[in-house]
Amino acid sequence: MSTASTSGSFDITLRVDPAGTGNWTIANLGSGGFPPGRTFRVMQALVSCTGLAGLVVEVRKNTVAGALCAAFTSAGATTDSPATLTEANTTFAATDNIYVSAGGGGLGASLTKVILRCVAADAQALTIT
Amino acid sequence: MSTASISGTFDVVLRPTGVATNWTIANLGSGGTAPGRTFRVQQVLVTGSGGAGYAITTRKNSGAGAVCAVYTEAVGGAFVDAPATLTEANTVFTATDNIYVSAAGGGGLATTTKVIIRCIAADAQALPVT
Fold first, then answer.
1. Does B29 reach chain A within 8 Å, measured CB to CB?
2. Domain range spanning residue B118?
3. How many domains are there within chain B?
4. Is residue B79 included in any domain, yes or no?
5. The pTM is what?
6. Which CATH number covers residue B111?
7. CB distance A123–B7 less than 8 Å?
8. CB contact, 8 Å: A65 with chain B?
C-alpha cells in the first residue's frame, strides 16, 4: 500500500514593537491552517532585547503558572540569543497556547523579539488516490 | 503593537508500493498541518530503480497539469534521493492544489519507492496575541 505524509518544522515569531516588558499569550495554534494543529516540540528559543542587563524572559505553557519551557536572562542588548530550554517541558499539545513574559532588568531593558523554532512531533498522513 | 506569526517548511513524502504508476496526493488544504495555504516546492528527491529513460514527473493536480519537476534516469540502475529538475514557473501550489506524481518508461522492473517533496509556505500566518 502506498502512503503519503507531511512532516515539518516551523518558526513562531513574537515581535514586540515598540520594545517593552509585559506578558503575551500566543493563541490559536491548534485551529488548523499551517502547523501545528497537533503536538509539537520547541527545539530552540531565540531572544532579542534592548537595554541593560537583567531582563528575564520566560516561555511557558498557557499561563504564568504553566510549565517553564525556556528561560533567558539578558547581559545587555542582544539579537537572537538562545534561551535555556527545560527539555521536559518543550512538548506542546495542539491546544496549548504559548505564554511569554519579560520583566526586570536595567535601564531600557525591553523585549523586541522571541523566535520559537519548533518541529511537529509526528507525520500527518495524507490521502492518496 | 505586538504581533505573532508562524512560518515553516515541510516535506511531503510519498512512499509507493505495488504496481501503480501514478499517484495523487490529496488532502493538502484540509487543515491540520501543512499547508492549508499557498506553498512553493523547493526540491523534489526521488528514490527507485529502472532502465535509462525511466521518468518520474511531479505535476499539479492531474496528468494534464503543469509540470513541477521531472527526474529522468540517464543510464539505468538504482537511484537514491536523486534531485529532479524543477520547472521554476510551476513550483507554486495553492492551498487547494493536489500533487500528482507519475512514473513511466524504464522497462518492466522500474520502480519508485520514495518521492520527497520539500516545500515552504509562501507566507507567514498571523497568530492572535493577547
1. no
2. 9-122
3. 1
4. yes
5. 0.81
6. 2.60.120
7. no
8. no
Which distant-in-sequence residues (6+ apart) come within 8 Å of A12 by Cβ? A26, A29, A98, A115, A116, A118, B4, B5, B6, B127
B2 touches chain A (CB under 8 A): yes
What ipTM goes with this model?
Answer: 0.85
- Cα gap A84→A111, rounded to integer Å: 16
Q: What does the pLDDT look like over B68-124, one tens digit per residue?
A: 999 999 999 999 999 999 999 999 988 778 899 999 998 878 999 999 999 988 777
Domains of chain A: 12-121 (2.60.120)
Nearest to B4 among A1, A26, A34 (CB): A26
CA distances (Å), origin B83, targets B22, B42, B69, B80, B95: 19, 11, 9, 9, 24
Show which of residues 50-89 on chain B sit within 8 Å of chain A, judged by CB atoms: none
**What is the amino acid identity at position B11?**
D
Find the residue in B nearest to A14 (Cα).
B4
pLDDT of B66 strictly over 60: yes
Say yes or no: B126 contacts chain A, CB-CB below 8 A. Answer: no
